[in-house]
Amino acid sequence: MTRINNNYLKLPGSYLFSNIAKKVNEFTAANPDKKIIRLGIGDVTRPLTPTIIRSLHDAVDEMADEKTFKGYAPDLGYSFLREAIARVDYKERGCDIAPDEIFVSDGAKCDSGNIQEIFSVDNKIAVCDPVYPVYVDSNVMAGRAGDYISSEERFSNVIYMPCTEDNGFAPEFPEETPDIIYLCFPNNPTGATVNKDALQKWVDYANKNGSVIIYDAAYEAYISEDDVPHSIYECTGAKTCAIELHSFSKNAGFTGVRLGYTVIPKELERDGVKLHSLWARRHSTKYNGAPYIVQKAGKAVYSPEGQNEIKGLVGYYMKNASYILNGLKEAGFTVSGGVNAPYIWLKTPQNMTSWDFFDHLLTKANVVGTPGSGFGPHGEGYFRLTAFGSYENTVEAVDRIKKL
Ligand SMILES: Cc1ncc(COP(=O)(O)O)c(C=O)c1O
Which of 56, 94, 126, 266 is deepest in the core (most CB within 10 A)? Predict the structure, then answer.
């Protein structure tokens, strides 16, 4: 008889976004005249920019002509895209990453969930708390996380690194040495970053202990401060300990188009095996490539016009982020993030729980955000607002919160 993968049964229900939707629906049904403003989602709202749209149209036309039609893409992705990535995201930043160390994919969610497959199930992972849930859940599915301890809201075999106000929402080295370390900067949900010296310490730590860092750089385009690294490969020695994940979702608005990439340097070996070879094997066996049309649009992101346009997109959202950050500060809230990230992390007032504050904001200001407790136990007492709405709605939402 067929048996299921029991590890899936260990996953606690993900009530966060369904609970939010349920509460919002109930409120809307009871108060149809109220205009709800949503600053909770991590999805973008601005349309794709003209250069990207033109490139998509051109690529569709190529598919209509037998002379330019394309079938399956090369395993690692088209070289026109990998070369553009290597040049703009790495070489121009002084990082030595070759095009054949870049694996094109359909986004960072899949890669961040799938990358654990190339490691033994015996490895122990460390994650930040609060955390983007995919890192933990994908390791639970693989049987690497142990059992869920519901009273502590944590898995028995995962090392949680608390990110709190006291440590500036940046993790400290854990007591127990992890084999795999997930880091994400700029961070979702806290919006925190680490400077180059701090990231260098993690790289040195991983090299010393033989650990591998999985570095999620999905929000790299939002960095505005000079000493915040855009890539972990800006740190010395990162090529022997780090894998880096990128997404086109938040910099270029590709959440619905789907494109991302993963970098695995050829120097990165464990047990005498190149991790690059393992991921190449996995990629060629289980994945057939991001669509040609989308990879062409990805290339357009790296053209001078594309780069200018996406700076405009990021600038639009960061204007929202500043408005939220400054407005809430003026209103007396304790807030962080929002400078190098599209997320604002605010401390709930009067020791309210994250969910109590959610209800308060929904009913009194008709604004929807995300309770911090949904990202891990150390998110309790915090609340995430995103800068991905329209400027008009953002201004209105903040002005309403100020009047509470
Ligand atoms: C930290 C982090 N990594 C990865 C992703 C997923 O990115 P993609 O749209 O490329 O799958 C998100 C999306 O919200 C994210 O917050």
Answer: 126
